[in-house]
Amino acid sequence: MSLSAKEKVIVKDFFAKVSSRSDEIGAEALARLIVVYPQTKSYFAHWKDLSPNGAPVRKHGITVMGGVYEAVSKIDDLAGGLLTLSELHAFMLRVDPVNFKILSHCILVVLSMLFAEEFTPQIHVAVDKFLALVALALSEKYR
Amino acid sequence: MVEWTDFERATIQSIFSKMDYDDVGPAVLSRCLVVYPWTQRYFGNFGNLYNAAAIQGNPMVAAHGKTVLHGLDRAVKNMDDIKATYEELSVLHSEKLHVDPDNFRLLADCLTIVVAARMGVDFTADVQGAFQKFLAVVVSSLGRQYH
Fold it and tell me: Does A36 touch chain B (CB under 8 A)?
């Protein structure tokens, strides 16, 4: 499943439109991840504060969303563009790739929540495909 | 046996009592058919599903969306035995309709996203957790009679 030229435009336009709230999106998505899927907390055991609205979670959500935006800018070559991030996740963080899917779902829920009017089914499918391809690119160096 | 906290029970009852089924039902099914186009395989006789606009305007999709959503009512009213409540429906989906049970999960994800859109910031992380737990039980129950 690859992105058509039209879908790339949809993704770039939509993320540009919501960029002013990207920090909020990231923080919300990560908060939801650890509340709705508590097993994901296992990756953050080193944080003193694991409360969904606490500083570490919000800050990390912003970092993750920054990564998503980097992926948007490299939408024409995700595997190549996200090589370094893939190495990070594969060799250092060793996040089980199943969690990429779970986080993608949380991002979609937050986008739907904050941008109900704009998040039409057509935009939903393009963003969903994009996030799946980002997950795939992040998994590149795993084995 | 699923254990529900008071918060979870109250949340599920609240969401469904306030839901406009005539709005949400069609929205959920049409979104599912657009976002996961392979699900269209079960609706060969629904006429025009050629693009998103056609799907969203299709009256058969709308009607069926309402049917499916009203089907969730039974679980809402019988939260303590969803498994038994859906035994017959599970057999129906397996033996007669031949629906891949993974589709239940896809539809549940679409429902979560539509409810999030309707509720906005009221769809907090805790509410999402309760809602997804409920849907997970429904999905599991509907898949139970597949052999």
Answer: yes
Least Cα distance to B135 among B71, B55, B40 occurs for B71
A 76-135 near B (Cβ less than 8 A): 105, 108-110, 112-114, 116, 119-122, 124-125, 128
**Residue B65 with chain A: CB contacts under 8 Å:** none
In tens, the pLDDT along B7-66 reads 999 999 999 999 999 999 999 999 999 999 999 999 999 999 999 999 999 999 999 999
How do residues B86-107 score in pLDDT, each as one tens digit? 999 999 999 999 999 999 999 9
Domain span at A82: 5-139
Domain B6-143: CATH superfamily is Globins (1.10.490.10)
The domain segmentation of chain B, as residue ranges, is 6-143
Would you state the structure tokens that stand for residue B22, as one six-digit string? 């005539």
- Rounded Cα gap, residues B47 and A132, in angstroms: 30
The Cα of B118 is separated from the nearest Cα of chain A by a number of Å equal to: 7
pLDDT of A14 above 90: yes
User: Which tokens in the block code for residue A14?
Assistant: 């939509």
